[in-house]
Amino acid sequence: MPRITLNDISFHYLDEGAGPVLLLLGGTLGTARGDFAAQLDAFSAEHRVVVPDRRGYGATRPPDRDFPDDFYEREARDMLALVEALDLDNMVVFGWSEGAAVALWLAHLVPERVRALVVWGGIAGLDDEDIAGFETRRDTYAWSPRAQGAMDETFGPDYWRRVWCDWLDTMQRLRAQGSARLAPLETIQQPVLVMHGGRDPLIRDVHPRRLAAALPRAELHVIAEGAHNVHLAFAEAFNARVKAFLATL
Question: Is 44 one of the annotated active-site residues of the chain?
């Protein structure tokens, strides 16, 4: 896996295939291959697929992960530095979960480099109901043994539990402030495919609907049986719908 130093951080990233560029941005506590193995396999035959481990995640450590109020925009500026260093242009940016907000910020910051977006599992704001839902997952020892084991293997047993609780605390803080500090959606003029797993236990279905309504050129597609990781659990259906979207660009 190559490395590149940006903003005083040594970033790990994957860079596979050749052709039109896809930039894939993963979720909280994600890793490049862990978040997108099914998309790397499906798209790298015809595209150049670039997948970074964002700061504090995967192999991009140090630094330890933190969450200032503007962390979505900060992450997008990290990715902008990566885009410029690798001279990526005319990209389609994928964003899952936390990465969805980062992808939308990146499109806002450098619209001239972003051709289109595919986002899923991300928030359109923060309501009390969202916070209540997030808080039901605060006890990481109640997670499945498989999920805990995977996190322990990647991050060690203490780090990921602290990061997850810090993320939850940040959502609480942003809700209290009245703003999730998301990109201004009305400025994003690129085509956007908003995907959603109909059984996502973390992100309520109001969020993809709000995103699709607020983005000027968005379409919404729901995979009814999918959960938060719809792109992995229903990879064939997910990838087919994304390929159909790419063919329209």
Answer: no
**DSSP at 231:** H
- Condensed to tens digits (0 to 9), the pLDDT of residues 75-134 reads 999 999 999 999 999 999 999 999 999 999 999 999 999 999 999 999 999 999 999 999
Q: Which candidate in 47, 53, 200, 207 is catalytic? A: 200
| Residue of 12, 97, 130, 231 with catalytic role | 97
Cβ neighbours of residue 244 closer than 8 Å, sequence gap 6 or more? none
Ranges of the chain whose pLDDT falls below 70: none
SS (H, E, C) 161-189: HHHHHHHHHHHHHHHHHCCCCCCCHHHCC
Give the integer Cα–Cα distance in Å for 27 and 56: 12
Is residue 200 flagged as an active site residue? Answer: yes
Q: At a CB cut-off of 8 Å and minimum separation 6, what does 75 contact?
A: 25, 54, 55, 98, 102, 105
Out of 108, 221, 228, 231, pick the active-site residue. 228
* Rg of the chain taking only CA atoms, in angstroms: 17
Query: Are the C-beta atoms of 195 and 241 separated by less than 8 Å?
Result: yes
User: Does the active-site annotation cover 231?
Assistant: no
Domains and their CATH numbers in the chain: 3-125+184-246 (3.40.50.1820)
